[in-house]
Design goal:
heterodimer; A: mainly alpha; globular; B: mainly alpha; 6 helices; 66% helix; 0% strand
Chain lengths: 141, 142
């Protein structure tokens, strides 16, 4: 549907704007896996901005729930164990690979970082391959 | 203090962007990655929109000597393509496909107060600790 593409485009532009603010004011890349990871081995003076960011994400989520609740539909009906394995893989992989969709896919590609271009092509490629295999073996329809 | 207000605001705006874009709907992520099946290209426009904006703003912002609230830029400068970068990204891609969440949308979806995002986030943090623990022996990411 055309409107979905437009929402995706506008949403993407809003994301691009938000990471620009982080760069302009704080001089940082908005890499969400990295922001979470920093809290797991806390360093003095380096925690509050991370907590503030995650709190912001959560309150943004509250606004979405109130004004655009369709955003929280489209859940999968796979088993709980699938969710656990998926979470483990995402956590493990993003720290091993130094970034996720935000840090590599948005911030890194925007500054034409070779590492981020390779990382993004790899995780999208791995995702496509995984869906293909998961459908073949019947984990998902 | 000002930096934390900026971080909070960036998080808030980022989450709204994610919600509008469709990234918080795991079925859409499935559709995007289902290239050889019922391919739904709409999420491609999220990256196109975000990169189009930030590609331009990045160039403009980096003309300044320093950010507004800090003395120096904290942007990563590594250039080497390491096995850990590729393997880690591959593992992340598998998890993204299996669960339909990447880290940002998962954290944002905690506000839905549904069980699945909550389980995902706890597992994701577990996966991060697991990598850090293994890495303390092998130093994969150095």
């Amino acid at each position: 549907m055309q409107t979905e593409w437009l929402y995706a485009l506008y949403g993407g532009m809003i994301i691009g704007l938000s990471v620009s603010l982080m760069l302009l004011y704080n001089g940082r890349v908005t890499g969400i896996s990295g922001i979470v990871n920093g809290l797991l081995t806390p360093k003095a003076g380096d925690n509050l901005w991370r907590i503030s960011f995650i709190t912001g994400l959560f309150f943004g989520g509250i606004l979405i729930k109130a004004f655009f609740p369709i955003a929280f539909t489209g859940q999968l009906n796979t088993s709980t164990w699938t969710v656990v394995v998926a979470g483990l893989l995402v956590g493990f992989g993003t720290i091993m690979g130094s970034g996720c969709t935000s840090g590599h896919g948005v911030c890194g590609i925007s500054r034409l970082s070779p590492r981020s271009i390779v990382a993004t092509l790899t995780f999208i490629g791995a995702g496509v391959l995984s869906i293909y295999i998961l459908k073949q073996v019947g984990v998902i329809q | 203090m000002k930096k934390n207000i900026v971080s909070f605001t960036v998080g808030l705006i980022f989450a709204i962007g994610l919600g509008l874009s469709g990234m918080t709907q795991p079925q859409k992520v499935f559709g995007f990655l289902d290239l050889f099946g019922k391919f739904d290209p709409s999420l491609m426009f999220v990256m196109i929109g975000a990169i189009a904006v930030h590609f331009i703003t990045y160039k403009i912002i980096r003309r300044k000597d320093s950010p507004l609230l800090h003395s120096e830029w904290l942007v990563p400068t590594k250039k080497d393509i390491t096995p850990a970068l590729v393997m880690g990204s591959f593992i992340f891609g598998m998890g993204w496909a299996l669960g339909g969440f990447c880290p940002g949308p998962a954290l944002t979806s905690l506000a839905s107060f549904e069980l699945r995002p909550f389980i995902f986030v706890i597992s994701m943090i577990g996966g991060m600790f697991l990598f850090k623990w293994i890495d303390s022996f092998f130093k994969l990411n150095k």
